[in-house]
Amino acid sequence: MDKRDLKSMNFEQVKAVMEELGEKAFRAKQIYEWMHTKLIDSFDEMTNLSKALRDKLSENFELTSLRVVDKRESAKDGTCKFLFELSDNRVIESVLMKYKHGNSVCISSQVGCRMGCRFCASTLGGLERNLTPAEMLDQIYKIQKMSGERVSNVVLMGTGEPLDNYDNVLQFIQLLTDENGLNISQRNITVSTCGLVNRIRDLANEELQITLAISLHAPNDKIRKEIMPIANKYTINEIIDAVTFYYNKTGRRISFEYSLVEGVNDSEENAKELIHVVRGLNCHVNLIPVNPIKERDFKQTQMQFVQNFKNILEKNRINVTIRREMGSDIDAACGQLRKSYMDEHTT
Ligand SMILES: C[S@@+](CC[C@H](N)C(=O)[O-])C[C@H]1O[C@@H](n2cnc3c(N)ncnc32)[C@H](O)[C@@H]1O
Ligand code: SF4
C-alpha cells in the first residue's frame, strides 16, 4: 500500500491521523510544527517524539523532501534559480528573487504543462504530473532553509498551470497561509493562469485575498489563438467576464501579463486594442519582453518599442509597468533551466 503524504495534510487531518494511531492529540501539534515551521526533512529529526512513534510514522507515511541538483545565482541581480529532484526522480525548478521589500519565490505547480503556449519552454515535453501540496511547499521550505532568509512572497509562475491542478493548489495555499505554518499572508501570494475561465470563477468563490494574474499576451482572439491554444477554448471576452467576477467577489486588483513578441503582438495597433480590452477594470498590466527559447524563433521586442507600447497604455490611464528581467544571465525564462538540464541528462 502506498504511504500517505503527511506534509500535504492540514492540521485537522494530522489530528485525525494521530487519533487513528491511538496517539494523544498534542502530538499532532508537535508533528505539524516540525514539518511546517521547523521545516525538517525526515521523521528522525522529530526529536521530541518517541523512537516508536517515529518508526510508526515512517512505516505508514511519506515525508516529502527535495534534493538540490543545481543552483545558479545571477551575477547581475542575485536572483537564484534552483533545480530540485522529486522522490520519483523528476526534476522541477524554482526561483528566488530578492527585492527591497522582501524575498519572493516563484514555484512550479506541475511537472511540465499541457497548455502548449508557443513561447513557453515548460510545455515542450507536455504534462508529466501534478505536484502535491507538499511538493509545492517544499520548494519554499528548501529555499528558505538554504538562503537562511525569510520568504515573504510566493508566486505560482514557474512550470505548470496552477488552475489545472486546482485542488492541490488550494490545499497548498491553505497550508502556506496557516498561522501554525509559515503564515504567509494571502495578499503576498500570486496565482498566474493562462485563463481557465471556469476555474477562475471557482477561485473567486473561495473568496481568498490572493492576487490573480492572467497571462493574456494578445489583444484579440486571433493573435491569442496563434500563440496560446487555450484561446480556442475560451475567448478574451469570457476571460474578462470571469476576472470581473473575481474582482467583484474579492476586491483584488487583477494583473495582466503581456509578453511582447516582435511582429506578433507588439504594434501600436495592438496597444490600442489592448486598451479596449482592459479599460474599466481595476487592473495592472505587466509588459515583459519575451524571453526567446531556442526551440522557437520568437524574437524579443526591442526596448524602445516596449517603451512606446507602455506610453500608449499610460496615456490612456492604464496602470502599466515593464517587468524587469530578473536573472536573464541564468536561463531565467520559465522552464528553460529545467529544459537544458533534461536535454543534457536524457540523451
Ligand atoms: C510559466 S507561466 C506559469 C503560470 C501559468 N501557467 C500561466 O501561464 O500564467 C508564468 C508566466 O511566464 C510567462 N512565460 C512563459 N514563457 C515565457 C517566455 N519565454 N518569455 C516570457 N514570458 C514567458 C507565461 O506566459 C506566464 O505569464
Ligand atoms: S505559459 Fe503557463 S500555461 Fe502556457 S505552457 Fe507555459 S506554463 Fe503552461
TrEMBL record:
Q: Which GO terms describe its molecular function?
A: 4 iron, 4 sulfur cluster binding; metal ion binding; rRNA (adenine(2503)-C2-)-methyltransferase activity; rRNA binding; tRNA (adenine(37)-C2)-methyltransferase activity; tRNA binding
Which compartments does it reside in? Cytoplasm
For binding S-adenosyl-L-methionine, which residues are annotated in this chain's numbering?
Answer: 160-161, 192, 215-217, 291
Q: Does the keyword Aminoacyl-tRNA synthetase apply?
A: no
Q: Which cofactor does it need?
A: [4Fe-4S] cluster
- Report the InterPro entries cross-referenced here: Aldolase_TIM (IPR013785), Methyltransferase_A (IPR040072), RlmN_N (IPR048641), RNA_MTrfase_RlmN (IPR027492), rRNA_lsu_MTrfase_RlmN/Cfr (IPR004383), rSAM (IPR007197), rSAM_sf (IPR058240)
Its family?
Belongs to the radical SAM superfamily. RlmN family.
Protein name from the UniProt record: Probable dual-specificity RNA methyltransferase RlmN
Record organism: Anaerosporobacter mobilis DSM 15930
Gene label: rlmN
